[in-house]
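Quick one - first record:
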Amino acid sequence: MFTSVYRVLKTALISLWRNRGLSLVSTLIMVITLIIISIFLSINIVTNKVTKALESKIDMAAYIKDEATDEQITALKKMLSNRADVLEVKLVSKDEALARWQERYRENEKIRDVVSESNNPLPRSLEIKTEQTEDMETIAKLLSDQTYQTIIRELSYTKSRDMINRMTKLTSFIQIVGWSLSAIFILISIMVIYNTIRLTISARSYEIEIMRLVGASDWYVRGPFIIEGVVYGIIATLIASLLIIISFNLSLPHIKDYLGDFDLGGGYMGVQIWYVVLVQLVIGVFLGALCSITAIKKHLNK
């Protein structure tokens, strides 16, 4: 058995080397396919995690107009605190807003010094926490009513909700584009690998005929072609994984700078590299084996 396996493997490798031009093209097409799938899969994972992180951190701040009186603010805070869907309402004074500003930009003196005790345009605000994230929509509609226009200048929730909506739309767009491109390149890979195996079968037709005449088993005849397709997938996975890891390492610092304080978990911004490599390997081996088996069934039985 071991001798038979060794000979089948040897025949497959010899065939790959003899047709190295076609093998190179097939492998490169599959590499491109796997990279495209991996990139869009990773982007999809990151955007989904960013959206969830935004939703988990979302809160509401009602920024108060400077002309609003302390009595109006106290009445508004009491009204909100008495609601069953509100967990906490905290008043942030101008001094506290200034302290937060200076802490946030402590490493950037130019921005930090724009606001000072003598020149503090930062507004007072009411920070509101609700039982459920969905409850903020109700609170936002309530505070957007004409009744509170003389007190409230702006709601931070609207900006957060708009950002989440944009992220959701971006995720949907990435999914459509990603899977469309992936499907196109999968079809191209299937066509190229299928024709490579078909040409290999045609080139070895005389040798295959002799093996059949001397009583070679179906595995001995067909095995090298199946292994050849699987090898395409394995080599393509190795190359694609290496390129993906390099690109992740180069882009990770820029992505972290852009996303700021978001904690998306371990790995590369929440993307586990072993998962991406596993997906590449499964797709690569499956495509290679599928193309080989299909070509064998159609052309080897003639």
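second record:
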Amino acid sequence: MNDAAPIIKGLDVAKIRADFPILAETVYDKPLTFLDTAASAQKPTVVIEAEKELYEHYYANIHRGVYKFSQDATEAYEATRETVKDFIGAAKSKECLFVRGATEGINLVAQAWGRANLNVGDEIILSEMEHHSNIVPWQMIAEERGAKVKAIPVLEDGTLDMDAYKGMLSGRTKMVAVAHISNSIGTLNPVKDIIRMAHDAGAVALIDGCQAAPHLKIDVQDMDADFYAFSAHKAYGPTGIGVIYGKEALLDKMPPWQGGGDMISTVTFEKTTYNDLPHKFEAGTPNIAGGIAMKHALDYIMALGYDNIHAHEAELLDYATKQLSAFNSLRIIGTAPEKGALISFTMEHAHPHDVGTILDRQGIAVRAGHHCAQPVMDRFGVPGTVRASFGIYNDKSDVDRLVAGLQKVTDIFG
């Protein structure tokens, strides 16, 4: 953690839970135990109300109108960009591009940066633990440009083989794109070292920060990331809005990815000139309500304190790991010494989907499947896993209910 404040173990979870109205819901007459925050986090009232307030009181399109509602909506939307700058430690707010989510952000870089910089024989290095959204866009641009995609191996404990990575780097390496925290097995990767090694080889580096942004203090300048992506919906914010950070010097040299309104300076049939950053990469009417509400989600996280969040979730993960390890028929996939707030596992006699279905009848929401990360499932020889992922609103009682639910699975399947 980068925060200088002393770590205070634990959060006031009861107070936090009261801020999330959906957590009062029941499922099959059971209290909701939500353990799928890694897929998409629930939303606090302050985020919900921010969208409602816009639509009820000052909705208008942004960046275009001279009337009050448009000016007010534009001001609120752009205030979020300033918050994002502080949230990830960027030097300038114009380096923070708004996109539909991390997937679109990675596609933007792959297409706009890739078209301008990749040539036949160039190499893109990913890792075996990447989400499909940090694999497929690179495969698409590599095929188009005649480049090659390579993957850093994952070791048995779920950590990256850094010696293999070092050996893969060469003068042909142009891009290194890896997850900050794996969505499937939870590994916290040494991104600062990965980026430094990429730069030493003359490459640029993109970090998929979806699983890190809600849990860790992000400082893109300290890690020296060239690009950094995250989605608001995993950080207690709305769906349909996210961020791709890029260093100004790189963004200036990249061609636009999409054409349309707001990304232009002048348009004639003879020639179009493009707008300044960040608007050059933000074609069309954006998710205005989501953009405004995202600020409230990020403010909510920062108000709780990164050290408090980290300490609480680390304690919860440790407790869950010990409780689940007591099941003889359960295998934890991903045992790296540094992990995010999730635990991925299989059960000897039950398919992950069966486990997920039985838990659902107990009001317990987990994710079951390959988690859009099929290569890492292949690496560990499993069709998928059950994933329990934690957030600021979870506590040990949620783990206890998960354990009780898994005991029912054991009773059924043996």
